[in-house]
């Protein structure tokens, strides 16, 4: 986690308004000149969690200001293994290494949103802002802290005429693993856990919306679809229904 730029916070608080950037070591004072609005206003409006992000010139997010009971938050603390804010007891065990934290509190959602913004900057606009009233999210946790997230919602397609589906399904919408945590099967284990725990109780089948190539390969590997990577053709949808086609425009190694 230590090398993940954007989230290193401050090293030593000199006063309430002065910090030392944990990434470049320069003195930092939050002001309107280094303020960036990331997800403010329209997706967390239902709970009035509008937060502000203050970024150092080096790119690191030093301070997050949550104008409720939390105040000035060190972003690193949101991802720390100590898991403040009573998250520890809510974690569900995926296996010996990984845990799943279903997003409930403002801080859970704030953490997921920081990851979403990181994903959007790395991979593009498909990582659109959450709508908390509609969406569900889960954070992926390992020994180092919070390292990824998955977003989904539950859709009753009988009311939606544009899709030829008539039942209610869980729809996987976003999945992201931090770069330093890739190539260890984290996405596969997170996704499998999500299918058995959150999607299966809704319907025997589930949907995934506009997956990228890595996601399609993952679905194929898990036996949920049949996909030919050479001809880039979807041969068969089995347990998984793909909505909106495959998005080949974004190439990433986010799994
Ligand atoms: Zn800096």
What secondary-structure arrangement, pairings included, does this model have?
Layout (H helix, E strand, L loop, with lengths): L18 E2 L6 E2 L6 E2 L15 E4 L5 E6 L4 E3 L1 H4 L13 E2 L5 E4 L3 H18 L12 E7 L2 E12 L11 E10 L8 H14 L6 E4 L3 H9 L3 E4 L4 E5 L2 E4 L12
The structure holds zinc ion (ZN).
**Rg calculated over all Cα atoms:** 19 Å
The distinct bound ligands, ions and cofactors come out as: zinc ion
Helix content: 10-25%
Task: Please state how the strands of the largest beta sheet are arranged side by side.
Answer: 7-8-9-10-11-12-15
Reading off the top of the CATH hierarchy, the class of the largest domain is best stated as Alpha Beta
CATH superfamily of the largest domain: Gcn5-related N-acetyltransferase (GNAT)
Q: What gross morphology would you assign?
A: elongated
Features of this protein?
15 strands; alpha+beta; 4-stranded antiparallel sheet; Aminopeptidase; 255 residues; elongated; 7-stranded mixed sheet; binds zinc ion; single chain; disordered C terminus; 2 domains
